[in-house]
Design goal:
Number of domains of chain A: 1
Strand content of chain A: under 5%
Distance between the termini of chain A: 42 Å
CATH architecture of chain B: Orthogonal Bundle
Number of helices of chain B: 13
Helix content of chain B: over 70%
CATH class of chain A: Mainly Alpha
CATH superfamily of chain B: MetI-like
Strand content of chain B: under 5%
CATH class of chain B: Mainly Alpha
Order of helices and strands of chain A: HHHHHHHHHHHH
Structural class of chain A: mainly alpha
Number of strands of chain A: 0
Order of helices and strands of chain B: HHHHHHHHHHHHH
Oligomer: heterodimer
Shape of chain B: globular
Radius of gyration of chain B: 23 Å
Chain lengths: ~270, ~280
């Protein structure tokens, strides 16, 4: 009557369908990066795939692409400032709301998280309106302010998650042994939640570096940002230099991801 | 531990004050301002009225843009679910070393620049791209197909761009299911398909809802992918908003578009959250 050992056709078809769909998903996830890297080594002027020949010429061309370099440097420094501010404000806020069950903390939590679901383009437009109606000229500072709003949720999310895993007994014993709150924070809490903060800071940095909807409204000629420069280059003509720039970005992202995975177990914290 | 938490384990709510103030000025403030601007009747912003909303809601073109944006989000979400669920399912059942590797494969696109990922799709779907050269080499097509600048192209590209947002919550939800339940189901004679549809799938509903919410919200606002893969012929809400604000400098109308878009998104978020609440109740039974 009941023979779980025998491989029935349902079992086989189930595994087959699931396996095939999962393989298709993996192909879909991996293929684009792979294609970009291959095309970036092309020797021709077109984005033909597979390329007719291979060379490093487009990577060499990056050396003269001063507009891309300028934009990349701007994006990097804005992302750095954004991350610093996000960590400062976000970790403090996460400490306040992490273990609190009060209604206030709940409201604050949903407020802080809302930039993740709201259309960021609407926010970008609204913050441009605020600055221009208040008579504040667009500057790198206004750009960083806009970025912090959309990047700080990542820091809060990972820090709150790390705090939730923190065993409160440790804090109680630290206090009962006479440590002050500040000392307990520095010597117990902070070291234990550091990987969480680090993961959040990394996500905030990457999302600022890649931000388009806010930068679109808050940048000017002095703060040309890399994703927007690349987008505008692609709108105009299909330039193979963009493929080389993309290759560099992919390589740096993979390196950063591996480092973060080793130091803070990023993949466990991102979920 | 019945005495709840002693104060040493908690921090004062005051610590959230700096960020709360920052949000008040630079997040809540702008959104309030956006709402006010949307009620101006003219571009010089002198008189109040409902002109901008009437202009959008009575205009078949604008309504079609809104509808096609939400429809696009739905299609992307369904495609992500169709491919993402099996992937999440396979990941939770893989041995540890493979699991780590696969999760990295899922996360990597999430962190790679959206412009780079979209650029990849231009290369893949282009006239001389990988799809067309494969089709022509196999003799399935004589001339290159037009894949770029089509809606299907946008859906596939967006599905790739947003897939991690679907897969990550699903991995969490599926790995939380007690494996005994699946064993019990098959021991009682249910086949693999029956066990999947009657046990695994219903119990993972909270993950499906959470993933769908994130995917949908991200897909409808994905300005770069929509405009580069979709090209000039297809207009979605983000580009519509941007054109009105930047190219035409019509702030009141752009603000009205933004508000209508925000309300549409909030409406969808509310529906998803309600589904989530229902499914959590369902999953616990």
């Amino acid at each position: 009557m009941m023979q779980p050992q025998r491989p029935d056709p349902g079992h086989v078809s189930f595994r087959l369908v699931m396996g095939l769909l999962a393989a298709l998903a993996i192909l879909l996830l991996v293929l684009p990066s792979f294609v970009v890297i291959v095309v970036s080594f092309t020797s021709s002027y077109s984005l033909r795939f597979p390329p007719p020949g291979y060379s490093m010429r487009w990577y060499a061309a990056l050396g003269d692409a001063w507009q891309l370099q300028f934009a990349a440097w701007n994006s990097f420094s804005v992302a750095l400032w954004t991350t610093g501010l996000s960590v400062l404000l976000g970790v403090a806020a996460a400490l306040a709301i992490a273990r609190s069950t009060s209604l206030k903390a709940k409201v604050l939590d949903s407020l802080f998280m809302s930039p993740l679901v709201l259309p960021a383009l609407a926010f970008g437009l609204s913050v441009l309106m605020l600055f221009s109606l208040a008579g504040v000229p667009i500057s790198p500072l206004t750009l960083i302010i806009g970025h912090v709003i959309v990047c700080v949720p990542y820091v809060i999310r990972t820090t709150v998650a790390a705090l939730a895993q923190l065993d409160t007994v440790l804090l109680e014993s630290s206090a009962s042994l006479g440590a002050s709150r500040w000392y307990s924070f520095r010597r117990v809490t902070l070291p234990l939640i550091r990987p969480g903060i680090l993961a959040g800071a990394f996500l905030a940095f990457m999302s600022s570096f890649d931000n388009v909807p806010v930068s679109l409204f808050l940048r000017d000629a002095r703060t040309d940002m890399l994703p927007i420069r690349m987008w505008q280059d692609l709108e105009g003509k299909l330039d193979v230099t963009i493929a080389a720039a993309s290759g560099v970005i992919i390589a740096l992202t993979v390196t950063a991801l591996i480092i973060m995975e080793r130091t803070s177990g990023l993949s466990r914290r991102i979920r | 531990m019945a005495t709840a938490f002693p104060p040493v384990t908690r921090y004062e709510l005051k610590l959230a004050a700096p960020l709360a103030g920052f949000y008040l000025v630079f997040f809540v403030g702008p959104l309030v301002l956006l709402t006010i601007v949307s009620f101006y009747t003219d571009t010089k912003m002198t008189a109040f009225g409902l002109t901008q909303y009437a202009r959008f809601l009575l205009d078949p073109f604008s309504l079609a843009v809104l509808a096609s944006t939400l429809w696009l989000g739905l299609k992307v979400t369904l495609l992500c679910l169709l491919l993402g669920y099996p992937l999440a399912f396979v990941i939770t059942r893989s041995p540890n070393w493979l699991q780590g590797l696969l999760i990295i494969v899922v996360i990597l696109p999430l962190l790679t620049s959206v412009v780079v990922r979209t650029f990849a799709w231009i290369v893949i779907l282009g006239r001389q791209g990988i799809v067309n050269s494969t089709l022509m080499a196999l003799g399935l097509a004589d001339t290159p197909l037009r894949l770029l600048y089509t809606e299907s192209g946008v859906v596939v590209a967006l599905a790739q761009v947003q897939m991690p947002l679907m897969v990550l919550p699903l991995i969490t939800a599926i790995s939380r299911i007690d494996p005994n339940l699946q064993d019990a189901s098959s021991a009682l004679g249910a086949g693999a398909w029956r066990t999947f549809f009657r046990v695994t799938l219903p119990l993972s509903l909270p993950g499906i809802v959470a993933g769908s919410l994130l995917t949908f919200a991200a897909a409808i606002t994905a300005f770069i992918t929509q405009s580069l893969v979709g090209g000039g012929q297809m207009l979605f809400m983000p580009m519509y908003l941007y054109q009105q604000a930047s190219t035409l400098n019509n702030w009141p109308f752009a603000a009205a578009i933004a508000i209508i878009f925000l309300i549409a998104v909030l409406g969808c978020v509310t529906i998803f959250n309600q589904l989530g609440r229902l499914s959590r109740g369902y999953a616990q039974v």
